[in-house]
Structures are given as C-alpha cells and as structure tokens.
Design brief:
11 helices; binds adenosine-5'-diphosphate; Rossmann fold; 2 domains; 43% helix; alpha/beta; binds 6-O-phosphono-beta-D-fructofuranose; single chain; 319 residues; 7-stranded mixed beta sheet
C-alpha cells in the first residue's frame, strides 16, 4: 500500500481534527502518502482529494470542528454515487480509506469495502452510540460542555427556586443525557433506552419540594421528546411551571478535551496500522481502556444498550 486517504463525515465532533492529524502523521511516519478528502462522501464523489503533508495538520489538535469539513451526502446512498466515489479513489491512486464519523458514515465505509476499497472507521460522534466501542471521539468534550451548562443553570434555578428542563442531544441514544445527568446531579434523567413515567417525574418533583428542595433539574435526551413538550406535560399534569433550556449545537463545538485528543490520536494511528496490515471493513475503538479493532459488521449487529447500572445509580443518588 502506497497511498491512503482520510475523510470526516456526518455530524462533526470535537477531536475529529486530532484524529485527522494522527492519521496523517502516522501514515507519513510509516512511509505512506496520505490524501485528505474534503466534505465527506460528497467530496469523494466530486473528487475533492488532495495530498497532505506533515504541516497540513499542524496546529489543529486543539481545534474543534474538522479542517476537512463534514457533510451528509444523500448521493452516496445510491449505488451510482458510490461507484463514482470508487472511480475517484482509483483515479487518485488511493488504496485504502480512513473514515472518521458516526454510524451512518460507518455504513458508507462498509459499502465501499464491498466495492473493493479497504476502509477503516474511526468512531467520532458526540452521541457515543457506536456498537463495539465504549467511547467515541467528541463524547467527553460534549459531556463537559453539558455539565458546564447544567452548573450554570443550577445557579439560576437555585436563586429563583425553579425547576429546569434541559434538552440534550444524542439522536436515538441516551449516553450524553445519562452521563451528564449523573455528573450534574440532575434530579430526573429521561433517556430513550429506559421507560419513563410522567406520574413518577411529578411525584419526585413534589416529594423534593416536600423535603424543602427549592429547585430541580430534569435532563431529557432529544430522543425521548423535546424539553418544551415535557414542560407542557408537567404543567398540565401537576400545574408546575418550569423553564426550558435546549442546548443544541453548542454541544458539538469547542476545543476537544484532553481525553478526546488522546483517544483520537490512538484511534487514528491504529486505523493506519490496520490498513497497513492489508485489512479493510474494520472499526477501531476502546474496550477496558485498550484500543481495539473489530469487524465493521459488528457495529450493525445489535443496538447499543444503555448502561443499566449507571441509570439505576443516577436514580439512587437523586432521591
Ligand atoms: P453519522 O455518520 O454522524 O451517523 P449520518 O447518519 O448522516 O451521520 O451519515 C453520514 C453519511 O454517511 C450520510 O450522509 C451518507 O452519505 C452516508 N451513509 C449513511 N448511511 C449509509 C448507508 N446505509 N449506505 C451508504 N452510505 C450511508
Ligand atoms: O449525531 C450528532 C448529532 O449532533 C445528534 O446528536 C443530533 O441529533 C444530530 O447530530 C443533529 O444533526 P444536524 O446537525 O444535522 O442538525
């Protein structure tokens, strides 16, 4: 293998740049040429592919977003789109591809592997919803952003003795909400993986008030419902006025945490090693603090389960 390429795809995540840097530097260290593809799969189809040098990835380890830009690309969902992409890769002499993104991007890489392009995936999404790895790049930074917001909301909630509902991203996954709720001391956490009962939420709010608790924080994962919808329900059911805070895309930005920079560096370097070993259709990730690689199919086999023990603990600690 002489030349590989790297792209970032799907929703961006803090630490994607650190992963790009690791891929480029490791590849060059190993004597490979490495090209950057702009704008995810769209750039692949359009042939936006340029060779990168050591200096191309200087001064980016601390930057959020992605210097390669990211995109969602409907054309890549079609067989014709993917064939165009393969033709571009061949034209540019690319023999292996590193895809940095979330689970949709992984599916695209799987299709490319079927078309003969060895593809290795690096998990990067704030949702932390990739099967087979305990951590995705960007999750830790987003979690800290959410915690920072909750701490601030708690100040004003206390001053005004109010109940706040904070809506957290995560698509269909509840990890960000669950971890943030536990770390932020939220009274109630709603995640898509667990049943919720509005009567129980109201009961908890009232019993807190009964014990002299003056404020309350409810974290709702966007995959459950919107914070505004929940506020309406609580008002109708219990006559309790709440304030709503939707954190939105703030959660996707910012300088990556040290932890995200470290795992991005580890994942990116391992991805290059996997390609060098002549393997494709592989994902890299983390298990028990060890960097691992595993078959891409395993990502699609079963839905990621929520951490039941952590959910139970959050309930026990927020009585
Ligand atoms: P993420 O990678 O963050 O989950 P998306 O789900 O939007 O983000 O996926 C990113 C891109 O990956 C899509 O815009 C599309 O180009 C490609 N993709 C997603 N699913 C598939 C699929 N089943 N087959 C081929 N390509 C896909
Ligand atoms: O997958 C990352 C994510 O931020 C999800 O948490 C969220 O549901 C989605 O992307 C938002 O996507 P967009 O930026 O396209 O609105």
């Amino acid at each position: 293998m002489k030349r590989i390429a790297v792209l970032t795809s799907g929703g961006d995540a803090p630490g994607m740049n650190a992963a790009v840097r690791a891929v480029v530097r490791k590849a060059i260290y190993e004597g490979l040429e490495v090209a950057g593809v702009m704008n995810g799969y769209q750039g692949l189809i359009d042939g936006k592919i340029e060779l990168l040098q050591l200096g191309s990835v200087g001064d980016i380890i601390q930057r959020g977003g992605t210097i390669l830009r990211s995109a969602r690309c409907p054309e890549f969902l079609t067989a014709e789109g993917r064939e165009k992409a393969v033709r571009q890769l061949k034209k540019h002499g690319v023999e292996g591809l590193v895809v940095i993104g979330g689970d949709g991007s992984f599916r695209g890489a799987f299709e490319l592997s079927l078309l003969g392009i060895p593809s290795v995936c690096v998990p990067a999404t704030i949702d932390n919803d990739i099967n087979g790895t305990e951590f995705t790049i960007g999750f830790d930074t987003a979690l800290n952003t959410v915690i920072d917001a909750i701490d601030k909301i708690r100040d004003t909630a206390t001053s005004h003795e109010r109940t706040f509902i904070v809506e957290v991203m995560g698509r269909d996954a509840g990890d960000l909400a669950l971890w943030a709720g536990l770390a932020g001391g939220a009274e109630t956490i709603l995640i898509p993986e667990e049943q919720y009962d509005v009567d129980d939420i109201v009961k908890r709010l009232k019993s807190g008030t009964g014990r002299g608790k003056k404020h309350s924080i409810i974290i709702v994962a966007e995959g459950v419902m919107s914070a505004n919808a929940l506020a309406e329900i609580i008002k109708k059911k219990a006559g309790i006025e709440t304030r709503v805070s939707v954190l939105g895309h703030i959660q996707r930005g910012g300088s990556p945490s040290a932890r995200d920079r470290v795992i991005a560096s580890q994942y990116g370097a391992r991805a290059v090693e996997v390609l060098q070993e002549g393997r494709g259709s592989v994902a890299v990730g983390m298990k028990n603090h060890q960097v691992i690689d595993y078959k891409l199919q395993e990502v699609f086999e079963e839905m990621q389960k929520s951490n039941k023990m952590m959910y139970r603990l959050s309930k026990e600690l927020s009585i």
